[in-house]
Amino acid sequence: MTPTAKRAHTVARDLLSLTRSGEADRLATALVSIASSSTRRGPALDDVVGRLVDTFSLAAKDRRRSLRIGEPFTLRLRDHAGMTVRPDRLDPGVAAIVRAIAASVRDDRDTCADQIGQACENADLDQRIRVLAHCVFWTAHLLSTDTTAYPPVLSCLKASPGNSP
Predict the structure, then answer these.
(1) Beta strand 153-155 with 76-78: parallel, antiparallel or unpaired?
(2) DSSP string of 14-55?
(3) Region label for 91, one of left (φ > 0), alpha (ψ between -120 and 50) or beta (otherwise)
(4) pLDDT range class, residue 38, cuts 50, 70, 90
């Protein structure tokens, strides 16, 4: 594993740990720090998001395998009120992460990387934070849910009024 990949792995693991422990203030600080970081001291946002997408994908594949599910991989998207959301109604960065997860589960590395790039590059700070927060939230939720729950249900965090589903 390259030094950059190791740092991204460590940061992703730390974010998941903060999420599971309920340390909201420390998690918020870490999300902002990672989303706004452009220094060489920390991993790039796309590396951390990529690690979280990989973790989600591996957990979803393991769950499908253990449950012997042979049908195509599906995700269910819900808004903050529990209503079904179409991916095209999501914030563009969050929609790109949904597509990245689906591509990763299909082992389509090129599409996954392209979608992560779309979600993270040339985005304003709010969008970068939203993308990272969704990745952390979804991955932590999948890892902590009943291992017989399938397909994964992704709850979308409340968006700004202009981006409401």
Answers:
(1) parallel
(2) HHHHHHHHT-HHHHHHHHHHHHH--SSSS--HHHHHHHHHHH
(3) beta
(4) low
